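Dear colleague,

Following up on Tuesday's group meeting, I ran the structure prediction for the two-component complex that the binding team flagged. I've pasted the input sequences exactly as they went in, so you can double-check that nothing got truncated or mislabelled along the way. The structure tokens for the whole assembly follow below. Feel free to forward this to whoever is handling the docking comparison.

Inputs:
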Amino acid sequence: MARRPADEHLPLTPRVFLILWALHRGPTHGYALLSRVEEVGRGRVTVGPASLYEALQSLHQRRLVREVPAPPDAPGDDRRRRYWQLTGDGEELLRAEATRLADLVRDVAASGLLEGSA
Amino acid sequence: MSRLPLSLRLALRALPRAFRRQWSTEIAAIAARRIEAAARLGHGARRRAVARVLRDTLATTVRLRLGGALRRAALPASDRLSPLDWMHTMLTQDLRFALRALVQRPLFSAVVLLVLGLGLGANAVVYSAVDAIVLNPFSWPEADRVVGIGVEYPRLGRELRFFEAISAPEYADVRDQAGALEHSVAFDLGNRQITGGDMPQNLFSGFWWGDVLPVLELQPEVGRGFTGEDFGQERAVALISTQVWRSRFAADPGVVGRVVQVDGEPYTVIGVFPSSARIYGTDLWLPMWASPELMPRDRRQFNIIGRLREGAGIAQLNAELATVARRTAAEHGAAFEEYEGWRLVAATWADVNQAELRPAAFMLLGSVGFVLLLVCANVGSLLLARSVGRQREMAVRSALGAGRGRILRQLLTESLVLALLGGLLGAGLAWLGVRGVAALVPARMVPAEAGIQLNVRALGYAAALALASGIVFGFAPALTAARTQVRHVLATGGGGTTRGRAHRRLHGVFVVAEVALSVCLLFGSGLLIRSFIAARAVDPGYTYTDVLSMRLTLPWSKYEGPAIPDFFEHLAGSVEAIPGVVAATTASAPPSDTFIRRQFSREGDAPVTGDGQLPDAFVTIVASDYFETLEIPLLAGRVFDGRDVPGGAGVAVVNATMARRYFDDQAVGKRFKLGAPDGDGPMLEIIGVVADVKNRGVRQATAAEFYGSLQQFGASSNQHFLMVRTEAEPAAVTPAIREAVAAMDPEQPIYSIATLQQRLDDDLAVDRIAMRALGAFAVLALLLAAVGISGVVANAVGDRVREIGVRMALGADSGSVRTLIVRQALVPVVVGWIVGTALAIALGRGLASMLYEVGATDPAALAGTGAVLLGVALLASWLPARRASAIDPVRALRAE
């Protein structure tokens, strides 16, 4: 299989994966993103405001996310905030990682490792 | 939007500037909203939210600021760094932190560095000396392949001897049959005079059966070495040492081809040998003229030096030598009984010549190593005390995500930096100190021309010790720090009050170690001091104060027969005329340096058969006034006088040991013969018995000895010592003695000038050096232990201010507080003393070979050690204890 550009970023750290996943639901600003991360991550990974922006900065530099203008229907307070959106590469990377994880889980399940533990 | 807590605002400011500019508004806004949301759930929830955001911000700061490999290092997973990353981290960040930590506490760092520098410097100096004396005494290429060959004749009662022990035909056997030897050369030693030029000079000379330079893998400085044609055909050629070349010929390269007078005979100089080839200090080399095969088999006065062939080991050579010995025994055993069971043994040249200094050398190296261990214990104790003050720093770093391994590594780096800086300082101190030590060691113990120097090996040794010490003294504080409970420290504010029981126990362990090490050094030095005093107190049996001795070697070409005793008698007479001289006499050897041994048989003894051996005794040829001059008492009969003339009946005076052992104390009038009863040695009648003198050095029991008279036997040797008793300072008469000699023969040099006192002192030189060095180490150890003990007590007092305050508030007086502190301080001291005593007794056995009339478990030394140590420990704990008793209870309680 030809090596795709996304492969060099794999595997993702749990924090980055959760942020990409949270952004997958649609563009949003930092505070909401943080809440989404906690929601999808169900507290498995701690992300705070500083580490969120650390990750966003790095994702931005790698063109995996982009800044977008606030949607016109945003509440007044939120319209001043910076909104974030996944790029195509970001989507692809998220899918690649999800696929990798799914493959992994399938293999683990097929090995019988999980039987009896449920 | 409410204001953020101060801690968060500070944490935000710690973010890298570029990142902060870009994002801090966003981060602050989110943080504020989250904290606000949490606050609605209650005070606790708000505090937890603040803590979470704070931790996240600080961790992000560390990650962003460090980057790359450092980013990984700062995370808890860093415990599994690869060695390369480890090095990188250590060299960059850890090192920076370590240096900063050092600079921040200049006094502490200075004290630690000084103590370490002294310890490491002392080790480097002692190692330099040990290296020059026993480890690498010879600087020749692959010097460990240069061997000497010794010989043992059980039938003659002769133990293995390497020096002047073998005969020329035996050498020829070895040379021709031992294949493991690439080259081997036999040589004899003696004195020759060179004359011509401004001053006659006595040169210690080697007489060679071959060119030794290839054996040493050296080249002549100028000219050439001996070649085959120089041997066996009376070629009058000579090599001179670089020293003589410089002093006598101004290092003139044209010296080759010059003719010098050696004992009055013309010799052509063919070359100059390098300084490092000065075997046994020889300055003049001459070829042997007679072929070794033609010399008598039983004239055993030669030495063999050889080089092992590439790839051959000493074991192989020894196996070959065993074969040589068997073959020789088979061939010549009938004519020479001593070949029955004889052995030829090879050993490295360093073993042959320096082995006897090895016990003292390694004892001192071990002792100075003990001093370094003490230094480590001290520094470790200091670091431990300091680490308490740094608990908060460590806790914060731990909270920032630094793993236990990370913190441990950081602390170890600091210790290593300390150790290496201490090592640098030590190298500097050693560079200064090594000259002083070199001056204390007699030159005869150091074969290398360069003497004792701080070389690469010593520096490498010191560097290795520095590294090891860094790990040793750094480990305890590092481990305790890594065990520190982060939450506990942060919660209590992490002041100096949370010193745990573990800390105190570790301090106790350090004190035990310090005391135990001091006890060992003190005890060892006590033993050596007692032994030295005992050896010094030995009466050698003759007057040695204000007696000057010197040696003269008359050239055979000018003096022979009665001319030799006549010269010395005449000389003694004219020296006695010098003002300030009480008496002058001569002897073939100074009283404690006798070296000639002869076998003898009593009249009526049956010829020796089977395993029987002839007895042997030292023999010294003396002038008739020798006993009177040196005040050796006559016990029976008479000493030599005018009746004992050459050609008359041979007479001898024996010492008390010989009279008792061989003549049942009824020696006068008895007769004995030199050599075997059926041999043709001269028969001597015993005319007198004199008291024993210590004729093998003061530490050895007196051996049987007999004296022959100068008139009867003086012609048998051309070398005699002149001994001059003076009224005052003996050295003052030396110029007048030179004049007296010159008046008789202007070309006659005198040499080996020393007072008998100096010769006796020289006999104890190793003892003296060992005693002084170990004594110095013991004093150093005691000082270090005292500093260590008082530091620990001071710490303990500081810890217990409150407790002491309570005690005093409840009515304890200052005296009882002092007693309490001192008593508790003495617990580890006593434990250390017990441990140290056990260790010292075990180690003392290793000293046994160096001791004279002192047991290795000498109770006086043990008691002395205990008394000194307890005294010092009491003083060391008393001083800080006084501070404790001065505590004001009110203030102590209020301070909490």
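Chain A has a mean pLDDT of 82.

Cheers,
M.
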